[in-house]
Design goal:
By secondary structure, the chain is α+β, with helices and mostly antiparallel strands. The chain contains five helices and four strands. The chain has one domain. The chain starts with a helix and ends in a 16-residue tail after the last helix.
């Protein structure tokens, strides 16, 4: 799908392209490559906007801007309204969000360091840990 949208973007007058979870089922270096390709596509034309919905820290780190979308439900009511917030993250918030994507609920200094490396474009796909796993 990514390749098809890239080709179509170059041949049509489409100004906005949305990629919804184009990174499903991939991770690590492959996700980093997808993120790099999406960033390249976003920089191809000044009048074109690329929106990417992702849960991949590698893809998110490739973005020029990062929006966090969060669903807020009224915890006191099962039938109450649900609110969706969209927040433009600054650099520090973006680093923390990418670190959260890497580490889960408990963000560690190692995850923050890995997020920094991803945001700088270094090839790092997981936070460092003090213990190493062996097969």
């Amino acid at each position: 799908m990514l390749a098809l949208k890239v080709v179509l973007a170059g041949t049509s007058g489409t100004r906005t392209i949305v990629f919804d979870e184009v990174d499903t089922g991939i991770g690590g270096a492959t996700a980093a490559a997808v993120g790099a390709r999406l960033a390249e596509l976003a920089n191809t034309r000044a009048d074109q906007q690329i929106l990417v919905v992702t849960h991949s820290p590698q893809v998110a780190a490739s973005a020029r801007e990062h929006l966090r979308v969060q669903k807020l439900a009224d915890v006191n009511s099962k039938e109450g309204p649900t609110k969706t917030d969209v927040i433009l993250l600054d650099t520090d918030q973006r680093r923390e969000e990418i670190a959260r994507m890497l580490a889960g609920a408990k963000v560690t200094d190692e995850a923050r360091a890995a997020a920094d490396r991803l945001m700088r474009g270094e090839d790092d796909t997981a936070p460092a840990t003090s213990a190493s796993a062996s097969a």
